[in-house]
Amino acid sequence: MRTPRRCALLVSVLALLAAFASPAAAEPVIPPGFQPASTSWTGPGTGYVLGYAPCAGTWCPVLLGTTDAGRHWRRLGAPPMPLPDNHNHVALRAFGDRVAYVSDGVHVRTTRDGGATWQAVTLAGAREPYYLSKIAETGGRVFAILTTYGEGRGSTLLYSATAGSPVLAPVPGFAVSGGLTYGDLAVGGGLQVALGADYGTERYWTSRDGTRFTPAEPPCPDGTVASLAGVREQQVVALCSGSPGSPQPGSTERQLRHAPRLGAKFGDDGVAPFAGINQGFAAASPAVATVAAVGGGVGFLHSTADGGRTWETLELPDRGFALTDLDFPGRGTGVVVDGQPDADGGSAVYRTTDGGHTWRELRFG
């Protein structure tokens, strides 16, 4: 008689444990109403998507990961980053499977354990209002571009720290000031940093290791702003753009330029389409590049496969609010986020596997 009683007790315990575990087990990997906000890929098939889903009258963050190009997703620990009311882009940047940063331009958090825990990041010496526009990693160090605003005058600086550090600090000597300041950085085959002010002051540095920097001639001529791509097959690719709204509202003059190696002089290669205001730029190779732009309620992906001699344009009219996180993580594979989670049209992640010739929406669930 003892054995049946023990079996009955075991069955009861297992049933009780199952009852407690059932809600978590039943929780879907992709929650209902999920909308992507940002994506970051460490390779053609390995990527992460930070999004938001409706919960309790607000938007709750959800972090997903994939190792098979989005065919399957797993749920990861999401950063405690609310969706901003001002429509600031919440940008996720993953550096391997352990270290990642997320920022809404003002608040920054980092993880060093694959999302299990997140901690706030301090921007040493930064005084609001400011905007952190880009974060990248190379050689075990994180670099970021921070722009501050003031009474008709501002500054743009380079910040840095060891990857995963909770404190980012200004890098001495890397700053510009003026009425309008801006900057960009790129990694891959070396580090590039470009800072500018008022379409007249342009400074540019390169580094092989993220520690020792060499000043170089800026990629773009006076009156234009540089958007940087990493070194591709030993060549360096940059996009030079005029002021937004020129030659007409909702347009931008653009030119693709190449340098034969890191630190070498850039030369003209091709005029890109004018439609839209710049949202992003990325290159898969010296010949293959894409410009993301928005204008008149339409998103544009301008792509070239011959180094800027000819271009084709894909229009994304369904959202037309923003195009962010444009990147080519490898082998002609590229990604971009269209829209924002709380916008009327929602948001989506688009992916290309042929260098930007065709783009398809990435499905979740």
Could you explain the architecture of this structure?
The protein is mainly beta and 365 residues long. The protein is 7% helix and 50% strand. It has one helix and 29 strands. The chain has a five-stranded mixed beta sheet with strand order 9-13-12-11-10, with no helix packed on it. Strands 1-2-3-4 form a four-stranded antiparallel beta sheet, with no helix packed on it. Strands 5-6-7-8 form a four-stranded antiparallel beta sheet, with no helix packed on it. The longest helix has 25 residues, at 2-26. The termini are far apart.
Helix content: under 10%
User: What would you report as the Rg, rounded to the nearest angstrom?
Assistant: 23 Å
Report the span from N to C terminus.
50 Å
Given the C-alpha coordinates, what overall shape results?
globular
Can you list the strand order of the major beta sheet?
A: 9-13-12-11-10
Mean pLDDT: 91
Order of helices and strands: HEEEEEEEEEEEEEEEEEEEEEEEEEEEEE
The share of residues in extended strands comes to: over 45%
What's the total helix number?
1
- Largest sheet: number of strands, sense, barrel closure: 5 strands, mixed
What's the β-strand tally? 29
Q: Which secondary-structure class do the elements indicate?
A: mainly beta
Question: What are the segments in which pLDDT stays under 50 over at least 5 consecutive residues?
Answer: 1-26
